[in-house]
Each structure stands twice: as structure tokens, then as C-alpha cells.
Write a structure and sequence with these properties.
This protein is α+β, with helices and mostly antiparallel strands. The protein has one domain (about 1-90): Glutaredoxin (3-Layer(aba) Sandwich), CATH 3.40.30.10. About 40% of the residues lie in helices and about 25% in strands. It contains 3 helices and 4 strands, in the order βαβαββα. The protein has helices at about 10-20, 40-50, 75-90; strands at about 1-10, 25-30, 55-60, 65-70. Helix 1 links the parallel strand 1 (about 1-10) and strand 2. The chain is globular and about 35 Å long.
């Protein structure tokens, strides 16, 4: 199953993913980097991939990472990930 993992402290990013309607066919996990419960998980995931800023998006198929999205100077990371997921959606339909 395709999984989209979003690490962000901005709830607006989570809202954009939910409103895109991809969560009906793919598993979506939001990790809030400001939450005391998920801060360590967010930090570990970002540092494993060398990411410092947010948002950070990872797309996985089972245990295989298909693609990660991250940028130091762009706020279009979530949009780029959603476009990638929409392309995958056509493959898995």
C-alpha cells in the first residue's frame, strides 16, 4: 500500500493533503514536529534524509521509499508531492 508521510508543524499542509482526496486510496500519516508525542519521530525521519526545514514529505510503497520531497527555499513541497501521488494514482487504478 502506498503511504504518504508528511512532517510539518503547519496544519495548513495537512489540510491541503486531506482536501486533495488522495487519502481515500492511499494511507496518509501526519507527523506534527511541535507535538511532544511525535517530535522525536519527526526529527529522526528528517535527519535520516538530511532535511532540516519543513515540510518534509515521504512517499513509500510498503518498505520501499519511492520519493522524498523537501526544499530549503520553497513552499511548494506539498504540491509537488500531491502531483507525484496523483501520477501514482493512475498507475494503481
Amino acid at each position: 500500500m502506498i503511504e504518504l508521510i508528511l512532517v510539518s508543524s503547519n496544519l495548513e499542509d495537512e489540510r491541503r493533503v486531506i482536501e486533495s482526496n488522495i487519502v481515500d486510496k492511499f494511507y496518509f500519516k501526519f507527523i506534527d514536529s511541535n507535538s511532544a508525542y511525535t517530535k522525536k519521530e519527526a526529527y529522526t525521519l528528517k535527519t535520516d534524509w538530511g532535511a532540516k526545514k519543513e515540510p518534509f514529505v515521504m512517499v513509500k510503497n510498503k518498505d520501499k521509499v519511492l520519493r522524498c520531497f523537501y526544499s530549503e527555499n520553497s513552499d511548494k513541497v506539498v504540491d509537488e508531492a500531491l502531483e507525484f501521488i496523483k501520477g501514482l494514482q493512475e498507475t494503481y487504478d
